[in-house]
Structure formats: C-alpha cells, structure tokens
TrEMBL record:
Belongs to the peptidase M3 family. PANTHER family: PROTEASE M3 THIMET OLIGOPEPTIDASE-RELATED, PUTATIVE-RELATED. One of its GO terms (biological process) is peptide metabolic process. It comes from Pseudoneobacillus rhizosphaerae. Binds 1 zinc ion. SUPFAM superfamilies: Metalloproteases ('zincins'), catalytic domain. It holds the Pfam family Peptidase_M3. Residues 170-530 form the Peptidase M3A/M3B catalytic domain. GO terms for molecular function: metal ion binding; metalloendopeptidase activity. This is Peptidase M3A/M3B catalytic domain-containing protein. Keywords: Hydrolase, Metal-binding, Metalloprotease, Protease, Zinc.
Length: 565
C-alpha cells in the first residue's frame, strides 16, 4: 500500500521563508490609491493574485506535512507557515478588509459579481479583534498537535503493529468476532490517548469562547454563524435536527432491522453498524482501487473519468495507509495550478471506496468551477455547495458498484451500504452539529459531561437501533476520532443539508440519467457568487430542509432500499 510521495504537485511562486518580503507585498496593497470603480476592481484583482500565490504554497506545505507527519523538514515548513505567515495574513486581512469596506466605490460594484464578497468582508470587519490573533494561532497549534497524535496511532494486532486505519477497516469484516475484536482494539487505543485529546479539546473550547467574547458575542456558536456568513439561522438548524429525528430515524431503524435479519443476530451491536455484509474488501492494492474508480467515473461521464486519470498521472492523489500519515480524507484546491488534490489515509474497505468517490466529487467541482471562473476565493467556497457535489457523485455512481462487486447479491449489498452511508450522512452530521451547539454554549462543561452528552445525542440519531449496553463510555469518547471538531468547528450540518440535495439528484438520475449528470455539471460550474439556493436550482435540486422536504427524501430512501432488497 506504499506510494511515492516525492513528485512535485504545487507551485511556489512566493518564498514564504522571506517573511519580510511577504509582508512588504501585502502591505503595498494598502498604499494603492483607489479613486474610481475601475481602480477598486483592479485592486481586488491584484489582491487576489497575491493571495492565491500564498494560498497555493501554504496548501502544498500543509499537504507535505500531512503526507508524512514524521518528516522534520515538512513539519518545520508547515509550522513556519502557521507561526509566521498565518499571523501576517490575519493582521493584514483585517486591514485589507477595512480598506475595501471604507471605499466609497464599494457599493457601486456589480451586485451579482461582488455582492457575496461585500457581505463576507463586512462580516469579517465586524468580528475582527487584534487580541484574537494570538488565540487563533494557539488554536492552530493545538490542532496540529491533535493531527500528530492521530497520525502516529498504531494498534497491536495479532503480534504486529498496524496503522490505526487498517484496524478501523476491520469493522467491515464478514466475521463478527473479528469486527468485535477490532472494536475493542480501537477503544483500547482511544483510552490511551484520551487524556491528551481531552486536554486539547478543553483548551480549544476555552480559547474559542474567549475569541467570541472578545468579538462581542455571548458564545462561540453565535460568533461562528456570523464568521461563516451562513444563509440560514440557528433556529433553522434546530428545526432540521427535529425534522430528521422525526422522519429519518424511524426509516433508519427499519433499515437496521434489514441488516440485523441478514446478519442473523438478535442484537445490533456497535461493531455491527458497519459494512459487514460484504464478503471482501473491494480491493487489496491502491492500483486496483484507482483502476476501478476511473472506470466508474468514465461510465458516468467522460469528463469525470478524464479528470481522475489526469490527477492520477500528475501525482494529485495520495491514497493508502502508512505510518506517520495524517488522519482522514479530504480534497483541497491549488488555486494557481488550477488543480485539485485528494488525500486519504485508506485501508482496503468499502468506506474507503466510497470516500474516494466522495472526494472526487469535490475535485470535479473544483475543476468545473476553475474552468469557468478561475480560482475559488475562500469566501466563495461554501460547504453546503461543495458537499452537494461530493455526495452527488457517490449517488450518481451507485449503479456502477458492480465494478467492484460483480456478483448480484454482493452488488446489492454494496448498494445497500451506500444507502446506509446516505442515512448516516443525515444522522451523524446532526449528531455533530447538536454536540457542538452544546459544547460552545456550555463552555464550562467537563470532559465527563462532554462524553455523556455525545453518547446521549448519538443514541437519538445514528445509534438509535444499536444495543450499546456496556459500551456507553467507549461510545461517549469516540467523538475524538472526528477531525472536524478540532480543525473545522461547526462544519457538520452542511453534510446533512447537502445530502438532502444529493438524494434529490439521485431521484432525478433515476428518471433521466443524462439530464441529471448535465445538471450536476451545470451546477458544479455555476457562478460562485450566487446564493446557495440559486446554485442548487442550477443543479436541478432545491435548497430546502423543511419538514416536508425531509419527509419526502426519507420516503424516497426507503423506496430505493426496497427496490434493491
């Protein structure tokens, strides 16, 4: 499962080691006179050109570190960016935002092209506080520490030291005894790192609470809703939580009964809530995974397959597990090169196949958008949109899983597992969202209370049909395995919102596959500056997570499951 990681895949058009030089280039933007609308538009272009150079270099350094957290040079370069360049960006981003917002020409700019930028900058000006910069840097240091701990995890398995992801993949094993053994082995590792992870999260909660107080907010939740410039309210989130509990959880319980029956077990235990009906992992070598996904993408649309093959040829995919590799899976964009990069710490499993297809949805969205509009800017990249195309890609490929599972019953099992994943992406993100609402509106909570709350929420949603007796503590501490709570707080509910849209896309695909794929491509290349609702509409779906919409998609999911069954 090893892979050559020496290939250069990003451009360094600016020397980030020259901190004074970088600062001089940023500072020079503050001295540019803006005396007309055309001056302002030119200034915005020059600012963007500089920032994407910095962003590409920093992204490359971040990837280098994640690809080998034990590489001393990669680590020092990444830490330099975080400790020297990031403070500059925070400092000057605020000054640049102030310069832009103070311009009398700002409101004369075209609303369709610049309206979103204006709203985001205005929000950032309102929340920026100089005293928060060192707190945010400390926050990043803690997240780096978390990644190092998780990247270095190994598990003792049958006399050998194995990477943590390889044992996690054992939860998909056909043999129930192996699944249970893997579950216990993972929990043993969790217990070993629990004090360190608790200490990191305790400090993060306090840091983030202070950041919010400094910015004039009562809590970090309310602060983040403004920072993220969300197009929905806290109450909308609470309503969504309730709608999913009312209409999705009962359907999820019925699907769990199907799984329990096929497993031939009386009780659905924590190690049964995985892809355990598949006889074998879908691949044993990364090359086999790459070949199969390339074929699946190409059958869905030639452009999808072409992009994947391009990424493979140009070193823009790093899959497979190895010691020292960072945790998780993600797609990131290289704004100068115009490329997408997919990183994943995979061991052979159905989940790793599904995750690669998911990340390729992000990658294709990135290429489509870049070809039409140039590089994304940070304010344009809204996760409710990005996740629509990643989940959408998974569901568009649902009918091609026979590439890895050619036997009829295995093919059906794989499709059921993908739909189980769809359910989980309506349930797990809601668990995470409620969990974070609670954490940051109750910042004085203890580690014990945090674990208990996570267990209680989990039982309301994804673990509702699971017999968790005797494992309350283990499940309670399992939040520590979720990178998002550390690196990207309040990036959770977006998954559930996007999955509702992706299910509508699947519904459209079943009616007219060609039109659904064309709508996917149209939405994926839509103008970034539109509202979320407008981009969803271009994709042929609705940005709607009201009770009727949630109920309709819950009913649709059950119908699809019945059709496969």
């Amino acid at each position: 499962m090893t892979q050559d990681i020496s290939q250069n895949y990003y451009k360094e058009l600016i020397d980030l080691q020259d901190v004074e030089g970088v600062e001089a280039q940023i500072r020079s933007l503050l001295d540019v006179p803006i005396e007309s609308i055309s001056d302002l538009e030119l200034w915005l272009k020059e600012e963007k050109d500089l920032m994407i150079k910095i962003n590409e270099a920093m992204t490359g350094h971040h990837l280098d570190f994640y690809r080998n957290t034990e590489d001393a040079l990669a680590k020092s370069t990444y830490l330099h960016d975080q400790q020297a360049i990031q403070p500059l960006l925070m400092k000057y981003e605020a000054k640049l935002n102030e310069k832009c917002c103070a311009s009398p020409y700002l409101n004369q700019l075209d609303e369709n092209r610049y309206g979103l930028m204006r709203r985001v900058r205005d929000s950032k000006v309102k929340v920026f506080r100089e005293e928060n910069i060192p707190l945010m840097l400390k926050e990043q240091d803690l997240c780096t520490k978390y990644s190092e701990i998780m990247g270095g995890l190994t598990v003792e398995w049958e006399g050998e030291e194995k990477p943590y992801p390889s044992i996690k993949s054992m939860l998909d094993h056909l043999d129930r005894a192996v699944r249970e053994k893997a579950f216990h082995a993972m929990m043993l590792v969790h217990r070993g790192i629990k004090p360190d992870i608790d200490a990191i999260m305790d400090e993060l909660v306090q840091l983030r609470h202070q950041i919010a107080l400094n910015a004039g907010f009562e809590n970090y939740r309310d602060y983040m809703f403004v920072v993220k410039n969300l197009e929905y309210s806290v109450q909308d989130c609470y309503d969504f939580h309730e709608n999913v509990e009312k209409h999705i959880v009962p359907a999820w319980n019925r699907l769990a009964d199907v799984f329990k029956s096929k497993l031939g077990v009386d009780k659905y235990r924590p190690w049964d809530n995985t892809a355990k009906l598949l006889k074998n992992p879908p691949y044993s070598e990364v090359s086999t995974l790459l070949d199969g996904v390339s074929e699946m993408l190409g059958k869905t649309d030639p452009y999808f397959g072409e992009r994947f093959d391009y990424m493979r040829e140009h070193g823009l995919l790093d899959l497979g597990d190895r010691k020292g590799k960072g945790p998780g899976a993600f797609c990131t964009y290289l704004p100068v090169s115009g490329d997408s990069f997919v990183f994943a710490n995979f061991s052979p499993s159905f989940d790793s196949l599904s995750a690669l297809i998911h990340e390729m949805g992000h990658a294709v969205n990135g290429y489509l958008g870049f070809s039409e509009h140039g590089p994304f800017e940070e304010y344009q990249l809204r996760m409710e949109i990005a996740e629509l195309y990643s989940f959408g890609m998974e569901l568009l490929l649902l009918d091609k899983l026979d590439r890895f599972y050619p036997e009829k019953e295995d093919f059906k099992s794989a499709q059921r597992e993908e739909l189980r994943w769809a359910f989980s992406m309506l349930l797990k993100p809601l668990t995470g969202d409620i969990f974070q609402h609670w954490m940051y509106t109750n910042p004085t909570h203890t580690a014990k209370e945090r674990d208990e709350k996570f267990f209680d929420i989990s039982k309301r949603y994804g673990l509702n049909p699971v017999d968790t007796s005797g494992f309350e503590k283990e499940i309670g501490m399992s939040w520590a395995d979720t990178l998002h709570y550390f690196h990207v707080p309040f990036y959770s509910i977006e998954y559930g919102i996007a999955m509702l849209g992706a299910l509508q896309l699947l519904e459209n695909y079943q009616k007219n596959s060609v039109q659904a794929v064309e709508s996917y491509k149209k939405g994926g290349s839509a103008d970034y500056n539109q509202s979320i609702a407008a981009i969803y509409e271009e994709t042929g779906v609705s940005f709607d997570f009201s009770e009727p919409s949630v109920k309709r998609m819950g009913d649709f999911l059950e119908k699809v499951i019945q059709d496969i069954h």
